[in-house]
Amino acid sequence: MDREKYITNLNDKDLQDLFRLLNKLKNSFNAEFLKQYNRSLPFADMLFDRWERAKLLGFGEGTSVYDSSIVLGNVIVGKNTWVGPNTLLDGSGELSIGDNCSVSAGVQIYSHDSVKWALSGGVEKYEYDKTSIGNNCYLAPNVIIAKGVKLGNGCVVGANSFVNKSFAEGSKIAGNPAKLI
User: Fold this and answer.
1) From the CB of residue 127, how many other CB atoms can be counted at a distance below 10 Å?
2) What is the rounded (10 degree) CA torsion for 23, 49, 103, 165?
3) Rounded to whole angstroms, how far apart are CA atoms 9 and 104?
4) Which of 14, 44, 60, 130 sits in a 20 to 30 Å window from 74, CA-based?
5) Torsion angle (degrees, nearest 10) of CA 175, 177, 181, 82
6) Quick one: pLDDT at residue 12?
C-alpha cells in the first residue's frame, strides 16, 4: 500500500500528524546515522540506546544490547559484552554470558526446550537447564546454542553452528552439530 494513501486513510487527524512526525524523525535519524556511522538501522535501534537497555536489564557496565534483541527470563551478562541485533537470549532456565563477549547478529541461546512436551502431546513438561558462556567468547552470526550447554572462557563458535554439547576453555568449534576444528 502507498504510504501517503495509508496515512490519509487513518480516521484521526492526530494519528496522521503523529505518523508523519515519526517518519520525519526516522528519516532524520537515518541521515545522521549514515553520515556519522555509515550505517542504516531499524528505527527502534536508532531511537533507543543499546547501553541504556543493557543497564535497565542489569547487565554489566559497558555492555550493549540492541532493541531488536529478545531477552527472556533470568539472563545475566557481564561487562563490555556486545549483543548484536536480532538475537534471542532465553534465560527461562537461567543463562549467563561472561565479560568481553561478542554475540553476533542472529544468535539464539536457549536454556529450555519443549521437545518432550511436543512429542508427548503436551503431557510432559518443558525441560530447563542452565546455559553459560564464559568470558572472552566470540559467537559468530546465526549460531544456535541449545539448553544446558556450557562454553568455557575464550571459545570461538563459527557462523551458522548448532551447539548442542559443552566445550572447554579455548575451544574453536563449528558445524551442525558443532565440533572442535
Assistant:
1) 15
2) -100
3) 40
4) 44
5) 70
6) 74
If you write DSSP's letter for every residue of the chain in order, what string do you get?
--HHHHHHH-S-HHHHHHHHHHHHHHHHHHHHHHHHHS----HHHHHS-HHHHHHHTTPPTT-EE-TT-EEEEEEEE-TT-EE-TT-EEEEEEEEEE-TT-EE-TT-EE-SEE-HHHHHTTT-SPPEE--EEE-TT-EE-TT-EE-TT-EE-TT-EE-TT-EE-S-B-TT-EEEETTEEE-
Tens of pLDDT, residue by residue over 82-133, are 999 999 999 999 999 999 999 999 999 999 999 999 999 999 999 999 999 9
pLDDT in tens, 128-173: 999 999 999 999 999 999 999 999 999 999 999 999 999 999 999 9
Average pLDDT (65-86) is 97
Amino acid letter for position 123: V
b/e 142-178 (16+ beta carbons within 10 angstroms → b): bbbbbbbbbbbbbbbbbeebbbeeebeeebebbeeeb
Instruction: Give the predicted TM-score (pTM) of the model.
Output: 0.88
Sheet holding 178-180, edge to edge: 64-65, 82-83, 102-103, 138-139, 156-157, 172-175, 178-180
